Amino acid sequence: MTLPVAAHAIAALGAFLVVGFLGRRLASRIGQPGVVGEIAFGMLLGPAVLGLAWPKAQSVLLPDGVLGPLRDLGHAGLVLFLVGVAHELRLDASRLRDRAIGWTALGTLVPSLVAGAAFGGWLVWYDRPSLRGTAPTLAFVLLLATTMAVSAVPVLARILADRGLTTTRAGRLSLTSAALIDAVAWLLLAVVIGIAQPGSGGVATAATVLVVGALAATLGRRLLKTPQAERLCARWPWLVAVVLGVCVLLAADVAEARGLTAIFGAFVVGLMIPPDSPHWDAPVRWVSTLGLWLVPVFFIATGLKIWTGSGGILWLVTILATVLAVLSKIGGGYAVSRLGGEGRAEALRVGVMLNTRGLTEIVLLQAGYSAGVLTSGLYLALLVMAVVTTSMTGPLLSLIDRRQGADAPPAPRKGEQVAATPGESPGQMPFPEGSRIVTHST
Question: Residue 119's Cα: distance from chain center in Å?
């Protein structure tokens, strides 16, 4: 790379990072997760303006000699970010003892898979080349089912923390269920890649990858939990973070060299890290944060390619995908939570939280697109669906809170007594059995 090209690439990188920063700030101002602003600015608005309003913009502003290295850098950022995603999938035994967790995960997973499979079947019947592509039918339908089912654990965890819902019943139920659902989604993605990649061996390769990856993650976790590894991590966390980042990039490169997606290599390394060790939290957070800062580069570089080959947003497909995604997630979560004994408001909160798809959805879409399962037009339609469903979470939770407050009986004025029901003493508020009284400090 010559000096002028390198200077051009550095200037473009700075512009990409500014776009990502502005997207995050704008999203936070309107009460949305930062990833919504990054996707909207980086993958939708910016590339759309450059690709539609000024078709020659890419060749002038971002020629191949500049865009290629930036695309590789953005892809590396996505891989580094996945370390934190894998580390967030902590399924400790104490949470899994709650039967409601399994029922909620199953109750949202099955309707979403069915809705996605039906959507894929319709696209196969519709048989439009710009949407269907040339992927094997089984891989195509299975990937669409998986994209409908996924939930974004990192984004959901951030939303719950911002709203003070992490320790609530609905928060714990939705976050643990989302982790279970995403674990199944990653397994299904391995099967999709194994079927779709030509000459990869199909399901046999996918099964081999899963077995080898599980063994490597288990062995690596045991090694990293030894006292020597713990002391090293506690004494030199920055050195550990650098080594961790290099290992993630190498594992991703090996996975791609074997005909798989880089996601699996990064995910296996992330699963190796002990989830119950406080010493590892800082290195993982630093590596994942670096990746998160570089993700807007991936969004813009990928968005330019998507818009160039898609011909614009296909609104019918986009609306249908969004409606199916919302109904299957919110409807399934609400129905199963109600059957499990949750109140209406709590059941609705669970469904709304599990409807959050965020960056996890983008990773799955990117894997399907790289494997040739998704076309540019369908990728773009599902990308809009991911942004819409994620941006719905905050406003819907606020609406539920307002409705619940409006439906609650007015508090008695000072000096007033509440009419007693049989079996209660005057002034005693009736609470259902097993409920908790939560006080809020002002």
Answer: 20
